[in-house]
C-alpha cells in the first residue's frame, strides 16, 4: 500500500517538474520573427500631481491664465474720490465732501542749493509756528554726520517728518567760520522734484535766522483741489468750494490660475498612490511564457500566437487609452470658464491584458485517475479491515 502511494506522489512531482513554465521579464519590444506562447501586456503611465498657480486680477488682459474662479475674489484698493463711479462689479462708497484748495502749497521738502562758493554749515534747523521740526537727509552731497565740505555745485534736500503749512515755517541756518558772505538759495516744495513750490529765496551765509515774508512767496504754487469730510474754514490761504456728492470704488478681482502638472519622475508605472495618471503619456510592456522543459515540443503551430495576434493585442491596448483621452479632452474643454478650487483627480487604473495559458487536458485526466485510485484503495483497505 505504501509503495503505491509513494509511486503516485513521485509521478505527480515528475509531471509538474517536467512541464514547469515561467514568464520572461517585462520588456517594451517583441521579436516579430518569433511565435510566442501566452503573451501578457501591461500599460504603464507617468504620474503627476496638480499644482495651482495664479493671482487675483480685475481682468486677465494678457491671457496669461487658462482658468478663472469667479467664486474666489477680493476687492482692490479704493480709487480716489470722484464725481462719477460707473464701474461694473465694484464696491462703491458715496458721501458728501467739502472741496477746497490752498493758494500756497504745503511743504514736505526743503532744498538748499546753488552756492556761490564752497561752504560748510554748522547747524540747520526748521520750525513750524516756532516749534522745531524733525527731518532726514533726502539728498546731501558729502553729508555724513554734518554739513561740511559742500561744494558750490552740490545741494542739500531735507525731508520733513510730515506736511506743514508753508506760511508757518521759519529757519535757522548757521555757516561755519571762514565762509562769510556766500550767497545760496533756499526753496520749499510739496514734492521732491520741485514742481509745486512754496518758498523760494536767495539768502546770505552771514545771516542765521530767517522768517519768511510776502517776498518769499513770489513763486508760490497753488495746491490741487482737495476734499474734506468736514467743512473747512476759509482763511487768507484757503479757498473753500460748495459741497458735492463724491464717490470712490473698489473693483472686484477674481482668481485667475493655471493648473501645472508636477510629475513624480520620468519613469512609467501602473499606479502611484496620491498621484494622477497621465493617459496621454504611456508605454506598453510585454512578457511571454517560457517552457523550461528541455524536451518541450518545438512545434511552433501548437499553442502558439502568431504575429497578427500580437499586433491585435497592441491595438487593443491603445484603444482604451484613446477613449479615455477623448473623455479627458471633453472634460477640460471649457477653458477660461468658472471652476471650483477642488479639481477632480482620476484614480489610476492599471490597464493589463493577459492571455491565460491552456493547461494540457492530459494533466486533468491523470489527476482524476490518481484521485479515483486513492479513493478505491482507501475503501478497499477499510473493507478488508472490517473483515
Describe this structure in words.
- The chain is α+β, with helices and mostly antiparallel strands and 387 residues long.
- The chain has helices spanning 2-18, 307-331, 361-386, and strands spanning 21-23, 37-57, 67-75, 90-102, 107-113, 119-128, 131-132, 135-140, 147-150, 156-164, 169-175, 183-189, 197-204, 209-210, 226-228, 238-240, 244-263, 276-291, 351-354.
- Strands 1, 2, 3, 4, 15, 16, 17, 18 and 19 form a nine-stranded antiparallel β-sheet that branches. A five-stranded antiparallel β-sheet has the order 8-10-5-12-13, with no helix packed on it.
- Strand 12 and strand 13 form a beta hairpin.
- 15% of the residues are buried.
- The model is unreliable at 294-305 and 327-359 (pLDDT under 50).
Amino acid at each position: 500500500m505504501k509503495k503505491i502511494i509513494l509511486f503516485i506522489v513521485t509521478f505527480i512531482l515528475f509531471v509538474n517538474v517536467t512541464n514547469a513554465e515561467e514568464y520572461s521579464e517585462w520588456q517594451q519590444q517583441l521579436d516579430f520573427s518569433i511565435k510566442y506562447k501566452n503573451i501578457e501586456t501591461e500599460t504603464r503611465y507617468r504620474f503627476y500631481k496638480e499644482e495651482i498657480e495664479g493671482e487675483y486680477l480685475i481682468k486677465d488682459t494678457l491671457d496669461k491664465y487658462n482658468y478663472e474662479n469667479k467664486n474666489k475674489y477680493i476687492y482692490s484698493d479704493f480709487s480716489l474720490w470722484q464725481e462719477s463711479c460707473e464701474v461694473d462689479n465694484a464696491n462703491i462708497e458715496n458721501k458728501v465732501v467739502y472741496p477746497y484748495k490752498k493758494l500756497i502749497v504745503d511743504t514736505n521738502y526743503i532744498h538748499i542749493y546753488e552756492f556761490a562758493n564752497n561752504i560748510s554749515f554748522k547747524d540747520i534747523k526748521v520750525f513750524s509756528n516756532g516749534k522745531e521740526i524733525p527731518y532726514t537727509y533726502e539728498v546731501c552731497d558729502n553729508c555724513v554726520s554734518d554739513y561740511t565740505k559742500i561744494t558750490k555745485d552740490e545741494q542739500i534736500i531735507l525731508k520733513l517728518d510730515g506736511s506743514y503749512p508753508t506760511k508757518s515755517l521759519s529757519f535757522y541756518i548757521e555757516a561755519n567760520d571762514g565762509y562769510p558772505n556766500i550767497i545760496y538759495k533756499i526753496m520749499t516744495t510739496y514734492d521732491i522734484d520741485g514742481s509745486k513750490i512754496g518758498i523760494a529765496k536767495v539768502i546770505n551765509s552771514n545771516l542765521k535766522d530767517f522768517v519768511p515774508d510776502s517776498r518769499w512767496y513770489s513763486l508760490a504754487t497753488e495746491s490741487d483741489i482737495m476734499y474734506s469730510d468736514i467743512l473747512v474754514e476759509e482763511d487768507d490761504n484757503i479757498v473753500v468750494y460748495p459741497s458735492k456728492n463724491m464717490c470712490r470704488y473698489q473693483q472686484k478681482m477674481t482668481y485667475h490660475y493655471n493648473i501645472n502638472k508636477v510629475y513624480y519622475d520620468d519613469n512609467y508605472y501602473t499606479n502611484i498612490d496620491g498621484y494622477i495618471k497621465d493617459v496621454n503619456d504611456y508605454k506598453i510592456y510585454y512578457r511571454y511564457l517560457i517552457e523550461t522543459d528541455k524536451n518541450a515540443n518545438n512545434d511552433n503551430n501548437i499553442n502558439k500566437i502568431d504575429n497578427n495576434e500580437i499586433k491585435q493585442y497592441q491595438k487593443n491596448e491603445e484603444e482604451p487609452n484613446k477613449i479615455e483621452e477623448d473623455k479627458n479632452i471633453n472634460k477640460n474643454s471649457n477653458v477660461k470658464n468658472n471652476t471650483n478650487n477642488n479639481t477632480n483627480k482620476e484614480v489610476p487604473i492599471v490597464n493589463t491584458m493577459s492571455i491565460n495559458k491552456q493547461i494540457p487536458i492530459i494533466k486533468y485526466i491523470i489527476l482524476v485517475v490518481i484521485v479515483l485510485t486513492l479513493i478505491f484503495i482507501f475503501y478497499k483497505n477499510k473493507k478488508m479491515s472490517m473483515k
